[in-house]
Amino acid sequence: MLLPPILEVFVVWHPDDELGDWVAGTVADHFHSAPFAGLAGGAVEVYVRSVPWAGGDRPPRPMPFMEPLPYGLRAPEFTAVVPVVSTRFARAYDDDAAWRGYVDAIAEAHGRDGVGVYTVVDHDPDMSGTGLIRALSGPQALPRVDRDDPAALCRELAQAIAQRVAAPDGAPAERITVFVSHTKHRSLAEDDEDGPRLYDEVRQVIAKTRLADFFDARDLQTTDDWASVLDDRASTSALLIVRTDRYAGREWTQREVLRAKLAGMPAVTLHAMRDGEDRGSFLMDHLPVVACRLDDPAPAISLALNRLVDEALKRALWRAQTVYLLEHGFDWLPAHAPEPVTTGPWLREHRDRDADDRHVWIIHPDPPLGPKERDVLVELCSLAGFEDDVDILTPRTFASRGGRLRP
User: Fold this and answer.
1) Alpha helices of 32-128 — where are they, by DSSP H?
2) From residue 73, how far is each of 40, 76, 196, 260 by CA, in Å?
3) Burial letters for 181-214: b for 16+ Cβ neighbours within 10 Å, e otherwise?
4) In the list 48, 109, 123, 311, which could disulfide-bond 266, CB 3.0-4.6 Å?
5) 85 and 136 Cβ atoms separated by less than 8 Å
6) Does residue 256 sit within a domain?
7) Domain that holds residue 298
8) Residues 6 or more apart from 289 whose CB is under 8 A from it?
9) What are the tens digits of pLDDT across the range 247-275?
């Protein structure tokens, strides 16, 4: 199953600056990791631009937006260019007209034809007065590189790209907002400080990022229709579930999770229990989970936020791919694997939309459902009147079938 490329990331650096090689490896490892592996093939590719075609001191070979691609190849819908600014790169810009023209072409492409430029600057030397920094002052700059925290670099880059991909054509990119879903009710095993301490830590970690956040206790005003505000925020934000002992049994936390799932929003669970739960809730499953140590929660909070940003980018890329997958005739292309919570409402809409349509063809990102999970969904489809033609696929299972639905 060949689909047009959606996102291509190009890391650009001077070959004498070894920082660029580290950034390229870090970025490549990140975008080839599990959160993005489930998309249809070719959704994300990472390329490097450092050495020229024929050696010497010339700038690297061009990128797709610089000249037409050969053999009628299609340019990606979105291109992210990551210039790694360091001493030798700055010197080449000042001393070599060819390097200067190459960088200026990158800067001029930012914000045009799906191109975004996200500059990374070496942590140690002061590059603020260089011509290279001035040339790249228009595009977005990422935080200075800290090699002890590569995850922060990847989160910032993924967030910047996700905001750009999700924005309508020509509209400014809006920051990802993290809805922090939590309960103030504590179990007998939790002391009076467990919850407040953990929520304060979440706030502090988010404050060190470029993410926006929403905490109901802090952000709701006395004049707000708080039920409508919570529903709207849960349906439009990335949901961070702070799952403490009493979380799963509370009406409003269940409502927030349900709203997020029905809207197909990214969600990650921070598993922060001290004693456990009486029964949990079927609404809470089918989500990425990060285990949290209550005596040292900051690392887990950072990991959960990083994963949440990746889930936001994956959702944006999947939505871009669905334009092409729809051409194969699929009825539903959810960004997350279907489950009873989301499948039931969709089946009702599908049945009411076209009474003569008697098939259910679903494709979602990998990995595929387990056999028993699939059996439950097929039974739901049968109860809704779709008995004979139900197909639930992922990009890999669809490709293994030769890109064909059931006849």
Assistant:
1) 34-37, 87-95, 97-109
2) 18, 9, 55, 38
3) bbbeebbeebeeebbeebbebbeebbeebbbebb
4) 311
5) yes
6) yes
7) 177-308
8) 268, 269, 271
9) 999 999 999 999 999 999 999 999 999 88
